[in-house]
Amino acid sequence: MTDALSSIIWAPFLPPWLLAALAGLCLLPGLYGALRGRRDVLWRVGAILLGLLWLANPRQIHPHMQTQPQDALLVVDVSPSMDIGQRKAFVQQARAQLLRQGRALHDLTIHELEVSGGHGQGTRLFDAMDHAALSLNNPAGIFLLTDGMDHDIPDQLPPSLKDMTGRIIPLHLLLSARGEETDRRLRVLSAPPYVIIGQTAHIRVQVDDLGTPGGQPVDILDHGPDGQTNILAHTKSGQPVELDVPVTHAGLTLKELTASPLPGEASLRNNSTIIQLQGVRDRLRVLLVSGVPNQGARVWRTLLKADPSVDLVHFTILRSPDTEDDTPLSDLALIPFPTHELFAQKINSFDLIILDGFRNQNILPESYLENIARYVRKGGGLLVVGGPEMTQPGTLQDTPVGAILPAHVPSEQGIMTQPFSPRRTTLGLSHPVTQALPEQGPWGKEWGPWYRALRTDQTQGRTLLATPSGAPLLVLDQKGQGRVAMLLSDQIWLWSRGEKGGGPQAELLRRLSHWLMKEPELEENQLDAHIEQGQLHVSRTSLAPLANVQADIIDPDGHHAVLPLSPVPRRDGIWTGSLPLPSRPEQNGRIWTVQQGGLSTTVALPETNPLEDQDLRSTATRMASLVSRSGGGLFWLGTGTIPEIRQVAEGHPLHGTGWAGLPLHQSALAAGGSSTAFLPGWLALILILAMMGLGWWREGR
After folding, report:
1. Checking DSSP bridges between strand 58-67 and strand 8-10, what pairing results, if any?
2. Which DSSP symbol is given to 250?
3. Dihedral angle of Cα 418, 423, 428, 432, to the nearest 10 degrees
4. What's the whole-number mean pLDDT along residues 379-392?
5. Which value, to the nearest 10 degrees, does the dihedral of the CA atoms of residues 614, 616, 621, 624 take?
6. Residues 6 or more apart whose Cβ sits within 8 Å of residue 39
7. Adjacent-strand bridge partners of 384
8. What is the mean pLDDT of residues 605-613?
9. What's the mean pLDDT in 37-43?
10. What are the phi and psi torsion angles at 390 (to 5°)?
């Protein structure tokens, strides 16, 4: 109504001032009639005013209209879930046919948009549609070819479903299936990240049936590395179930759980899941004995106290037995040094003993020192941090402990005092303890300097760190079933203080102590594997020479393949190789086994799209409301129904059986148009005569 009134112009037959004067004169008898209750006068006055309105000649303008060109957006979902079944074929067929139809229609341009999705972000169609719609001049509709699983569906109509004037444009949903689908998935509700070796991990899982009522019987199976499966539990979908998985070794334990298939489900991709359990030892116990108070003791305490898996027992020897000092013992220590308890009764309960700047000087009887050597040979770990005390009388080298030390320091000229930056040896570049130490940092290209080190006259074992002149700084060795390391400088604490940039002291000491405690990831003889971009990468580390190194690759079905490994240039003791993994059917396992030289490791195919794989159905339930509010239609491509594109007048239905409509929007031409009388003369005459008749009739009454 407002638009109609705004299009009226006036073309009076008499001057406007004369019409206004006549209208004013007519209002006087009308006022008289209203005061006296003379209705006949009111009808006659109305007839005169109606005649004056006709003389004012109101006319309605009718502009010439033209149909606007149409822009439609064809959005194609190419996310990983579209690889399931025949979805991609259905979509490509519909895409080609819609493009052919678009080229045949007048003034219609179809713009294509592919949305890849995946990469851990799921499918995000509407973000892409909103950006693409900004470039459309006259958007008339959107055709969305997808499986219906989108992860950014808005609650309200998005900007892409409105044109510049605010008019809603239709969203036509073309689904890549024959109808609503079902899917079964296996979810892990809870699983401990760490499990103490020898104990059982309690895992809680649940099977969900999507698109169909739950409560159906289902088996949960263990898919072994040899391709065999074992039934772990009988349950029903929608009900949580508890599983017990034993952890028998340190490091990573992989377990693949699979739910039995649901008849007719869309995909088996999410019927299985990988459980990763990290086997750890229960509370590593470390005994730290500092010979005299020193800066290094603070570094060790800070490092070991920060590790929640370590129980630290620390003693500092403030006074040797032969020291002449009148200070009462009660002022030097809260408790006496429990030598018998630590080095006789409970020595085997420790995973690592650290002797930092320790000078015996009759502090420990020889029997206790023999216990330390015996402790190492039976599987314990010992780290000796040496300083000037190694050249003085009472050194550990002259005790039974000296027989297991990997280096010997002479009493004369055994100390070097000059600035130097520690460097990794050729072996240190390959050894797990020092291989991963960062080279770049606040220190620049070289680690910060130390100013004192011990000279050795003989070494055994493996030297990982040395001075620029080649003098050993860090020497590792194995004695019996245990391990021993010797740090031939007491100034690693300078790195923690940032001396000229410092160095990676925390990482070095952490890795060194964990190697001594036989952590699996720091083993010198190890086999590692990982999967990246469809390639299985294998790395073999061995400090002993190996020839013709080949790895045995066992796929999830139990089939074997041979992978040759090649030595890495300038990295002694490391061999690597890679193998492209073939594409596998969805129902097969995901754990690969690698064996070489008596070592074995497992690796699982990574979950590249966990959000995408949560629900693999093709369904209309998620987008149906949005499609309905936009006025669009819903079509199942699997039934062979590819809608015909129709250009329909604005205000008419936009979809029907087998067709999808695009509204034709019209705009007025800047020039041209026509006009018609708002009050035609014949209509004005009839109304005037009728009103005069009513006035006479009222006068007769």
Report:
1. antiparallel
2. S
3. 110
4. 90
5. 110
6. 33, 698
7. 355, 486
8. 84
9. 69
10. -70, -15
105, exposed or middle or buried, with CB in 10 Å at 0-12, 13-18, 19+? middle
Three-class SS of residue 313? strand
The whole model's pTM is what? 0.71
pLDDT tens figures, 208-265: 999 999 899 999 998 877 667 889 999 999 999 999 999 988 888 899 999 999 999 9
What ranges make up the beta strands (E) of 69-216? 70-77, 108-115, 139-146, 171-175, 183-190, 194-196, 200-210
Task: Give the side-chain half-sphere CA count within 13 A for 659.
Answer: 11
- In what helix (H) or strand (E) does residue 514 lie, and over which residues does it extend? helix 505-516
- Higher pLDDT among residues 120 and 496, named by residue: 496
Amino acid 321: pLDDT: 47
Instruction: Domains for the chain: give ranges and CATH numbers.
Output: 2-64+669-700 (no CATH), 69-179+618-664 (3.40.50.410), 183-281 (2.60.40.10), 284-516 (3.40.50.880), 526-604 (2.60.40.2320)
CA distance 562 to 611: 35
Instruction: Quick: pLDDT tens for 128-146.
Output: 999 999 888 889 999 999 9
Under 8 Å between Cβ of 610 and 120: yes
**Alpha carbon 329 to chain centroid, angstroms:** 59
